[in-house]
Amino acid sequence: MKSSTQDKAEGKWDQAKGKVKEATGKATNNAEMEAEGKVDKAKGKTQEKTGDVKKVVDK
Predict the structure, then answer these.
(1) Dihedral (CA of 19, 25, 26, 28) sign
(2) Neighbours of 51 (CB within 10 A)
(3) Would you say 46 and 18 are in contact if contact means Cβ atoms under 8 Å apart?
(4) Distance separating alpha carbons of residues 17 and 22, to the nearest angstrom
């Protein structure tokens, strides 16, 4: 099982990656890339929250 810190870091990374993809998709009028960015951001938020929960449960 991943540590809470690793989950939070990966979550932040996915959110950042998603933000870049979404902005690039908007700038290039690429709806597919924009949608991928939104999915990556949502995945990152979920993973970050998972890290928060693991931290609370481990205490």
Answers:
(1) positive
(2) 20
(3) no
(4) 9
Measure CA 49 to chain center.
Answer: 10
Work out the burial of residue 55: count CB atoms within 10 Å of its CB; fewer than 13 is exposed, 13-18 middle, 19 or more buried.
middle
User: Residue by residue, what is the 3-state secondary structure of 1-59?
Assistant: CCCHHHHHHHHHHHHHHHHHHHHHHHHCCCHHHHHHHHHHHHHHHHHHHHHHHHHHHHC
Q: Does 7 have pLDDT greater than 60?
A: yes
Write out pLDDT tens, residues 40-59: 999 999 999 999 998 888 76
11-48 pLDDT per residue, tens: 999 999 999 999 999 999 999 999 999 999 999 999 99
